[in-house]
Structures are given as structure tokens and as C-alpha cells.
Design brief:
Shape: globular
Structural class: mainly alpha
Order of helices and strands: HHHHHHHHHHHH
Oligomer: single chain
Number of strands: 0
Number of helices: 12
Number of domains: 1
Distance between the termini: 8 Å
Helix content: over 70%
């Protein structure tokens, strides 16, 4: 159980370097587009409000970790809480990947605790389904304000329904397996492994667990909505809570559907557009968006990098 981490040497340096470079590029481009507005927004928010907003975001991380523990327990793995927390947070280092797929780094770390990749990937897939469901629900709560975005919600619902169908229909998975078994190439082997992950994912989606995971997801992402609303109120932007909820959820959905790393660029563009159409001046919309992303997305990446660096060379 104390074997060295598989991610080491030049691979580790490349990983950390890529995260740092993408963060610097993001901040450079963002601040170049609205440095005066962002610096003014930071001054308006201040240390007290900023610390409180970060507290809300960190509490949301805690709720998402609780959901992760539910999934690991459902898959038959009871890790010590502190160890599991460090592994979970380390996965945030690669949040800025398409669909947050880089968070599969947790699977590498969990191998040290004899957790098969199929199980860790099943937990990760369950997380993405739960996140998608939470965002769709939050967006639906404010859809009446922006009915023109119904196609985005429908697309998200279709993807969610497809994911749920794959997880909850063992007969469908069995049928796919029989078709794949007729072939003998690397594509069929890869698809067979994907189906193994889906088999394991079923353990995470019993009705009782699904209700609990959905509630944790809604509370966790709801806290980020409150953080967004808090930023807008401090900046004296007249945006109702229901509208802020829809803007946040729809922006995250648009970012996820764009398959850009971390939704970078697409999520920000949609959020700025929504805020501008809601009566917020363009400089203020840019400032609020960048500030929110720094206090949510980039805070997670920073926490992940620090935790990953701390555990990379130590036995877990």
C-alpha cells in the first residue's frame, strides 16, 4: 500500500507546468480584457466578503466530497476520511480538462489503496451525472426568465437521460457486450472496459443513494450560486437570485457542452452575455464573471495542485 505514486518525475512536472501555464494564460487574457473593472470589483468585495464567499465555496467542496464518499462506499471501498479527502482534492488539479476528465487522476491515487480503475471511473462518471442533474434542476428553476435557452436545457436533459439509461438498464449493457465480443480489436477492448465501468456505476445509483447524492449536489452547487449572487450584490448589480441561479447554471452547462477544458471561454462568454442582457454594464459583467471563476474554478485548481504536491512523494 506504500508503493510510490505512479505519477512522478517528468510526468508530474509536465502536469503541474501545464496547469500553471493554463492558469497564467487565462488570467492574462481575462485581466487584459477588463483589468480596471476586475481590480475595482476586488476592491468592492473586500477581504471580509471575499473570505465569506470562499467559505461558501469550500463548504460546497465538502458536500461534494461527502457525495464522493457515498459512491466509494457503494463500490465497497471504505478509505480513511483524511486520506480520501486528500485524494479527492488532488483531483481538482486537473479540473480544467474537457468534462473534468482529468479528475480521473484520483484513480491513479486510489490504486495505492487497491481500488480498481473501473471502480474509481465509475465514481467519477456518477459524479458527472449528478452534477449534470443538479445544473439542469437549477437552470429549470429560472428558465421562465430566459425561455429562449430552452434548447440548451433540452440538450442537457437528453444527455442526462442517455447516461441514466446506460446505468440503469443492465439488459442494454448486456446487449452491447454481446455485440462487442464478436470483434477482436483495440476498439472493442476499450468499449468492453467502458461497459465494465457502467456495470460498476449501477451500484452508485440505487434510488436511496441517488436521492442523497442529488441533494448533496444541489446544495453544493447552490452554494456557488449564492457566492455568485453575493458578488453581484456587493457590486450593486440588480440581478434577482432566481436570475443569478439560471445564469450560473446555464453558463456551466454551456461550458460543459462546449467540451472546452473546464468550459474555459465558453462559460465566461455566456455568463457575461447573460449579465449584460440583465442590465449589468459590460465592465461589471466581465469583472463579476472573472472574479467568480477565480473564486470557484481556479480556487479548486489551486487547492488541487497544493494537495497533489503534498502527497506526491509521501506514502498514503
Amino acid at each position: 500500500m506504500n508503493q510510490p505514486l505512479m505519477l512522478s518525475g517528468w510526468r508530474y512536472r509536465v502536469l503541474i507546468g501545464s496547469v500553471v501555464c493554463s492558469a497564467l494564460a487565462y488570467l492574462g487574457i481575462s485581466l487584459w480584457g477588463g483589468w480596471a473593472a476586475v481590480s475595482g470589483a476586488i476592491g468592492q468585495v473586500g477581504w471580509w466578503n471575499g473570505t465569506s464567499i470562499v467559505g461558501l465555496v469550500l463548504l460546497g467542496y465538502g458536500l461534494r466530497f461527502g457525495r464522493w464518499q457515498v459512491y466509494l462506499n457503494a463500490l465497497g471501498h471504505s478509505l480513511p476520511c483524511w486520506i480520501s479527502l486528500k485524494i479527492y482534492l488532488a483531483g481538482f488539479a486537473l479540473t480544467t480538462t474537457p468534462g473534468k476528465a482529468g479528475e480521473a487522476l484520483r484513480g491513479v491515487l486510489l490504486r495505492r489503496w487497491n481500488v480498481p480503475y473501473a471502480h474509481s471511473f465509475a465514481a467519477l462518471f456518477s459524479e458527472r451525472l449528478s452534477d449534470l442533474l443538479a445544473m439542469v434542476v437549477l437552470a429549470l428553476l429560472g428558465l421562465s426568465i430566459h425561455p429562449q435557452w430552452l434548447p440548451l436545457i433540452i440538450t442537457s436533459l437528453v444527455l442526462l437521460a442517455c447516461g441514466v439509461l446506460l446505468v440503469t438498464r443492465p439488459a442494454l449493457i448486456g446487449s452491447l457486450e454481446r455485440r462487442i465480443d464478436r470483434e477482436h480489436n483495440w476498439i472493442s477492448r476499450s468499449l468492453h472496459y467502458v461497459l465494465q465501468v457502467l456495470h460498476q456505476t449501477r451500484n452508485c445509483h440505487t434510488p436511496r443513494r441517488q436521492i442523497g447524492a442529488t441533494l448533496l449536489s444541489l446544495m453544493a452547487w447552490g452554494l456557488e450560486v449564492l457566492a455568485f449572487y453575493w458578488i453581484l450584490k456587493v457590486m450593486e448589480a440588480d440581478v434577482p437570485l432566481t436570475s443569478a441561479m439560471f445564469i450560473y447554471a446555464a453558463s456551466m452547462l454551456a461550458g460543459a457542452l462546449s467540451f472546452m477544458p473546464g468550459g474555459l471561454g465558453s462559460a465566461e462568454a455566456v455568463m457575461v452575455g447573460f449579465l449584460a442582457s440583465s442590465g449589468v454594464g459590460l465592465p461589471g459583467a466581465i469583472a463579476a464573471t472573472i472574479l467568480l471563476r477565480c473564486l470557484t474554478l481556479w480556487l479548486a485548481v489551486g487547492v488541487g495542485v497544493l494537495v497533489l504536491a503534498s502527497i506526491n512523494n509521501e506514502p498514503v
